[in-house]
Amino acid sequence: MTEKVSTIDVRQRIGDLLNRVALRHDEFIIERKGKALAALVPVERLEQMRQFARSQALEFLEQQKKGGLTDEQATDLALEAQRWARRRQRKSRRKAK
Q: Would the pTM of this model clear 0.70, i.e. be above it?
């Protein structure tokens, strides 16, 4: 299970947290003011996530080559995803204020 820790806890216990990550493969979500800010995970886990993301991207590209989306549709979809992410980011900033 992933444990949540504050940035203050991280500053005070960084050595202990790093040992737990390296030796016991514990994972931590680092929070500031109750909001998730970063994650502390073993390097192996990070590599697994990167490898999974790459394989998913390659699979998507293969599907697209087989007659999935046209270039125009893919561009429109990417732009819409970008707009959605920006709107979501603006909303989270407003809530933080």
A: no
Amino acid letter at 20?
Answer: R
> Could you list the pLDDT tens digit for every one of the 97 residues in the chain?
789 999 999 999 999 999 999 999 999 999 999 999 999 999 999 999 999 998 888 888 887 777 767 778 888 888 888 888 888 777 766 665 5
Question: Taking the CA atoms of the chain, what radius of gyration do you get in angstroms?
Answer: 19
**Parallel, antiparallel, or unpaired: how do β-strands 3-6 and 28-32 relate?**
parallel
In the DSSP assignment, the letter for residue 34 is T
Task: Specify whether the CB–CB gap between 67 and 46 falls below 8 A.
Answer: no
d(CA 44, CA 21): 10
**Which amino acid type is present at position 34?**
G
